[in-house]
Design brief:
CATH architecture: Alpha-Beta Barrel
CATH topology: TIM Barrel
Strand content: 15-25%
Bound molecules: zinc ion
Largest sheet: 7 strands, parallel
Length: about 280
């Protein structure tokens, strides 16, 4: 295993944050995910060009029987390519090994086996399916907004109760398509359903992925937004990561400055970095 570039020692954090525009982008994909055509070299180069110090390739590991490319992820090939780009960009970019686990509570055995077998730096947990319904399908929203949103948050509570991953992806991802259908979204209506999810995250030490992909949709929102981040902090949560959820080079790092602003506005003071599944909290400048 090749060494990866380390963050500077604690005393140098201020210098570190001044010397780069974006400290990390911890949610992005390459062609080791079935829905991304871009190779790792191109994604790394785009990250460097965008002034990002550290990235993680969070490829989809999806086992839901209705997935169009079920069980597509090839971990051996992924790690070979990852080591190659780590060596190629060693002096310019830290590249983390990661994975986006789909419904890790349903496919718990398979997910835990994957994490035990390979040297991942962190695992995202994602809820894309509620039963047989896909949250990116407008059909999911063919009912009153309250019903669809509560259905989602109840399943998210079940998923986070079990834990088994390091970062919860795109907390209220339902806005991406739900906003198109309903023309609005207000998380404060679901506070009673959201707080138990946050409780589970804090109990398991799971971080929140402050995800900016909603800015590529009509919703124009962070997932989670500042209200949910504020509840999380009030309840004792500290751990957040930034994620563009890029599947294309031009999306890497997009709007992560807005994510940092929301994190600060919520009263959170650190970003969380991971190495071999150990979190490290670094103060925001
Ligand atoms: Zn996702
Ligand atoms: Zn993703």
């Amino acid at each position: 295993m090749l060494p990866v570039r380390r963050l500077p020692a604690r005393a140098d954090h201020a210098i570190f944050f001044e010397s780069v525009m974006i400290p990390h982008d911890y949610h992005l994909h390459s062609n080791y995910s079935p829905d991304c055509q871009v190779n790792m070299v191109a994604m790394c180069q785009a990250a460097i060009d965008a002034g990002i110090a550290e990235i993680g390739f969070t490829e989809h590991y999806d086992l839901h029987p209705d997935e169009w490319e079920r069980d597509w992820f090839k971990a051996d090939a992924y790690f070979i390519e990852l080591e190659r780009v780590r060596a190629q960009f060693a002096d310019r970019l830290t590249v983390r090994a990661a994975v986006e686990l789909g419904e890790p509570h349903i496919f718990r055995t398979e997910c835990q086996e994957l994490l035990a077998k390979y040297p991942f730096d962190y695992a995202l947990g994602s809820l894309h399916w509620v039963g047989r319904r896909l949250v990116f399908d407008p059909q999911f929203f063919s009912r009153p907004a309250d019903e669809a949103c509560r259905d989602f948050f109840q399943e998210l509570e079940r998923m986070t109760r079990l834990g088994g991953f390091d970062v919860l992806s795109h907390f209220d991802v339902i806005v991406r398509v739900g906003y198109d259908v309903y023309g609005e979204y207000d998380p404060t209506r679901y506070e009673d359903a959201i707080r138990p999810v946050l409780r589970n995250l804090i109990d398991h030490g799971i971080a929140l992925d402050v995800n900016t992909a909603g800015f590529r949709r009509r919703a124009q929102m962070l997932t989670p937004g500042v209200e949910i981040l504020r509840w999380y902090r009030e309840m004792g949560g500290e751990r957040v990561t930034l994620g563009s959820d890029a599947h294309r080079t031009e999306h890497i790092g997009n709007h992560l400055d807005l994510a940092i602003s929301a994190i600060k506005a919520a009263g959170l003071t650190h970003l969380t970095f991971f190495e071999r599944r150990q979190p490290r909290l670094v103060p925001l400048a």
